[in-house]
Write a structure and sequence with these properties.
about 15% helix, alpha/beta, Immunoglobulin-like, five-stranded mixed beta sheet
């Protein structure tokens, strides 16, 4: 991990607060409206400090089901989601699957539409079906200070 851990924790808390305020601005479904009008810009801002995010939103709009690894390599250990950003069509089910690495993790949506249990169990699965278009930022509560974040963009 690079940088001052206190600075990273502060920036993480600030980003969560900002996203929460944006989420309260309304919009249909549980997605966070983009202040810039672009899902790409919203994702870039939310994942700015997430070191396994390279600016690419993985396009899975043709898939009925998508898998995201929890506890993937990133952010100084097994503190990442892989892929960190994914684009899906409305009605797609995303399943988060725990790798068993990096201690206990969970998946928490910024607006509270979904939240998994916290566990370190390899193979544990949590799924959510995205019915409404929007940008859905989420994080791992125990590792938010490590910038363990992800985003699902729903078209």
């Amino acid at each position: 991990m690079t940088g001052n851990p206190n600075r990273r924790a502060f920036l993480g808390a600030t980003a969560v607060t900002t996203a929460g305020l944006l989420a309260g601005c309304g919009g249909s479904g549980g997605g966070v409206p983009s202040a810039t009008g672009s899902p790409q810009n919203t994702v870039d801002q939310y994942l700015n400090e997430t070191d396994n995010y390279d600016g690419t939103i993985q396009d899975e709009t043709g898939s009925d089901a998508v898998t995201v690894d929890v506890g993937a390599d990133g952010n100084g250990g097994a503190f990442a989601f892989a892929p960190p950003a994914v684009r899906v069509a409305s009605g797609t089910t995303v399943t988060w699957v725990w790798t068993g690495n990096g201690n206990a993790h969970n998946v928490v949506h910024e607006r509270g539409d979904f939240e998994s249990d916290q566990t370190a169990e390899e193979g544990y699965e949590f799924e959510y079906t995205f019915e409404s278009a929007g940008t859905y930022p989420y994080y791992c509560a125990p590792h938010l200070g490590f910038d363990m974040r992800g985003v699902v963009v729903v078209e």
